[in-house]
Amino acid sequence: MTQYNRLGKPMQTVLMRQDLHARLVNGSDYPLPAINVLVRTKDLLEQGYISKEEREFLNEIYHSNPLVFDFALKRTLRHPQNKNLKLSDCIFQKNEKLGY
Predict the structure, then answer these.
(1) Which residues contact 76 (CB under 8 A, 6 or more apart)?
(2) How does pLDDT run across 46-100, given as a tens digit for each residue?
(3) What's the DSSP call for residue 50?
(4) Pick from 7, 18, 48, 99: CA 20 to 30 A from residue 87's CA?
């Protein structure tokens, strides 16, 4: 979800469609988050998903641990036009429907 080729309409749609969040589960498609060219915090900043300060912190995390970065980025993202829209907490929590 956070790769540069999914920014724009795909990412905005996921952030706007809060009704779908209960069907989503956080996961990593490692090693993709560790490939610097695929995750561009500059693009995320320019498109309004993160702030300048958030970009600085996220870049620091990326250099230490790309998997933690992937998680932190997903928790930080906000819809560019409506900063109240973010990925719901339920995406990152235990999901009984999945048996865990």
Answers:
(1) 50, 54, 58
(2) 999 999 999 999 999 999 999 999 999 999 999 999 999 999 999 999 888 777 6
(3) S
(4) 99
Domain positions in the chain are 4-93
The token duo for 21 is: 């969040």
Tokens of residue 60, six digits: 């620091």
Average pLDDT over residues 16-37: 89
CB 41 within 8 A of CB 58: yes
Residue with tokens 């641990």: 65
Give the three-class secondary structure for 69: helix
Return the SS3 of 98: helix
